[in-house]
């Protein structure tokens, strides 16, 4: 198993590797073995960083752990706000080649929010994570996923939105259905310039419940590129009895 995981991770095209399995199956143990292999061989990486994420996700805690491991911590670091930590980590890590181990993920971890540059063939960095969440799905889904991705026409916003929407779809039927709906929306909006509309509509239609949809629509009342304070937004929504 170690050999298989190692060989996959070391491929040039692999930036992120996830290991799924039920509790106690040996994910952390395998991750540690990979970590140890890096410690022995280094393989040209500047930093090998290990972070335990666990059930309660705290971005700042992850930032602090990474900072400590790369030597950015100290009195000055502790005084910084989360957003500054993000910038500092990013500026430091973008010049380094790192492998980041994230053990025991329960929900979405946003690398950008933490300040971790996205692993890409250009920076040759790697991120390896483990989770109990079920990742196994029908072997036909990757093919359908490529179809969906193609419909995004290389637009990052579309890829982000649809990626999030599709992340909970586990069956081939759901994926085929999504492709059909997206195709029909594309004809519906075919007179318009905006290629992203069908994807946004699909994502919107997939929101669970009318309340959640109203909450999203409410955000459209704010000016474009305006910062929306979570606290104020919640107050407004309470005021609207949403
Ligand atoms: N290949 C193996 N052979 C024998 N024992 C193993 C093996 N892999 C793991 N174990 C043992 O199984 C137990 C659980 O392993 P581990 O903590 O790695 O599981 P896990 O998948 O990370 O669980 P969790 O989801 O709860 O974090 C540990 O006691 C570990 O020593
Ligand atoms: Mg574990």
Automatic annotation (TrEMBL):
Superkingdom to which the source organism belongs: Eukaryota
Transmembrane domains' residue ranges: none
Gene3D superfamilies in the cross-refs: P-loop containing nucleotide triphosphate hydrolases
InterPro entries in the record: NB-ARC, P-loop_NTPase, Plant_NBS-LRR
Any Pfam family hit: NB-ARC
UniProt GO MF annotations: ADP binding
Cell wall biogenesis/degradation in keyword set: no
Keywords for this protein: Plant defense
Record's keyword annotation contains Transcription: no
Residue stretches making up the NB-ARC domain: 1-134
GO process terms (BP): defense response
Protein name per Swiss-Prot or TrEMBL: NB-ARC domain-containing protein
